[in-house]
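Suppose a colleague, Dr. K., hands you the sequence of a protein chain of 197 amino acids and asks what its three-dimensional shape might be. Before reaching for any lab equipment, you can write down a predicted structure in token form. Begin with the sequence itself:
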Amino acid sequence: MQWSQTHQRKEQLLRLAGTIGHFWYMCGRFSEALFWIETALREVAPDVAVSARIKALYIVTLIASHLGQSDLLFVRARECLTLARQNGDSRGFVIASWPLVHHLLAGGDIIGAHAQAEETLTFVRTQAPAEDSWTLACALNAFGSVILSQGDYTQAQQLYERAIALFNVSVARIASSERNVCSASRSLSKGGPREEI
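The predicted structure, expressed as tokens, is then:
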């Protein structure tokens, strides 16, 4: 990271920060993540490496949510949602929207949370590829949280059950891909046919 910054490799810095950002988030290294991602976001022009910028922005949004940094969460979530919408990035849109919806709910803004969750669900249904069950599951889960907060337990349960079913489909696809990779690896290690992919 420092090398990229020192050598003016700004786009590389943004890409690296966004990619490592998920690792930092999962490990709870929030300060390090915020320092490097915010540095990269400041140093790289907004129109450079847009997909990397979206990823970096939603990582900041997630971290800001965990740290209770409302101002940072709102600014970065809105920026991410705008870019994701402009670029048809349904996954980036749903990941930035999820903490925003839950932060609005925690603050008692059920109307704002409902509007955001509904907008996300509509966007995902129109933009996400049919095979991307994970993204739709996240959108349904966030909308379910809003409906639960409004006291409609039956509809909330239905939304959560649909989200769980979609999460399970997503996990099954990943497991199937991993089995295929393992099978190919075993075949190659036994001297099986080698084909270019």
